[in-house]
Design goal:
Layout lengths: L4 E7 L32 E6 L6 H5 L2 E3 L19 E6 L2 E5 L9 E2 L4 E4 L2 E4 L10 E2 L10 H15 L3 E6 L5 E5 L21 E2 L7 E8 L5 E4 L6 H8 L17 E6 L5 E6 L26 E7 L8 H15 L8 E6 L6 H11 L5 E3 L8 H17 L1
Parallel strand pairs: 1-3, 2-4, 14-16, 14-17, 17-18, 18-19
Antiparallel strand pairs: 1-13, 2-11, 5-10, 5-13, 6-7, 7-8, 9-12, 15-16
Length: 394
Amino acid sequence: MFIDEIKVYAHAGHGGKGAVAFHREAYIPKGGPSGGNGGRGGSVILQADHDLNNLLGQFYQPRLIAKSGEGGMGKGCDGHAGKDIIVKVPCGTLVWRLPSAPKPVPVEDESGEADTEEGPVLKSSTAKRPILRHSGSAVAQEIDLSKEADAAQAAIEDSGKGELVVDLTTDGQQFVLCKGGRGGLGNRNFATARHQTPRFAQPGEPGDEGEFLLELRIMAEIGLVGYPNAGKSTLLTAISRARPKVAAYPFTTLHPQIGIVEYTDFKRLTVCDVPGIIEGAHQNVGLGHAFLRHIKRCKALVILLDMAGTDNRAPWDDYQQVLKELELYDPAFLEKPRYVVANKMDEAVAEENLKKFKRKVKKTSVLPISAGFDQGIDQFKKLIRDAVEEAEAA
């Protein structure tokens, strides 16, 4: 199963609360304050890994919740920090922050209280960020995740994918998705010469949370595009050790395939084969535009044409339609260097179709090959290598 887009919920751990304690031992009946500090909450960290090729792990674990820090203890003992969660994602993963659900707005009445959907809240100047906590008191807040999810989903449909947070492209690159809250200070930190027995401490700060969309865009140097059954998978098998499924029917390839092309001087190139593009792909016809995002990072595009017209299609019409679909999806595709490769030249009608193609599509060089019989493969490998070197030089 290939997963290239998944929505996750991340929640960093809360900081532990500070302790209210006093030193007591033999012969010291009235010691000073000795409350320890709370531990830091665990963070949710994303790490790019080149050994992964899809987001299958996040599909089975869409809730990324880190541990909270422990509370402080007596005798000046600090609480343990919460353990960070390191989530490995494939290189080329984009992280989008999804819009959050709107929070209820308090409405004050004549009694000086503010009524919200969660109940009355006393009006206070420190209500936005409580600093001190009296020992023995606690505030419990329940969040209706289902309502927030529904509101967030409605906001997504209106505003798209939200805000781009980070693009993880390098192996080992880390990004703190949600930072853990700081631990609260114990009462020993508030002792002064005039107030030697403070009976309050700080609560721990809440950890960051939010909903995010992880989108994978495969990092390849060459993108293979074309109509279904044009021979893209066969070509990928001929130039690399990739073994995608090859069959004599359209849409054999259901998700992007990656192949590594190796040269005698140890040069390596990455080639991405995306499912076939048909008319209306930009409007989600066929397999739609779900996989066109994977060629956005490619340095050059190779348009593979079935020059034999196996499915009763004219190669020149296929070429024009592929360019149209790429432009309608993203006009930047046409700004990339592109090369036309004529496949299935072993068929008798292919030579005649190639002549017609050159007459109808002028000023376009075509490389004839036959991927099924390894004809023209060396020339194709040289073509894509030169294309990548020219793109890097530019």
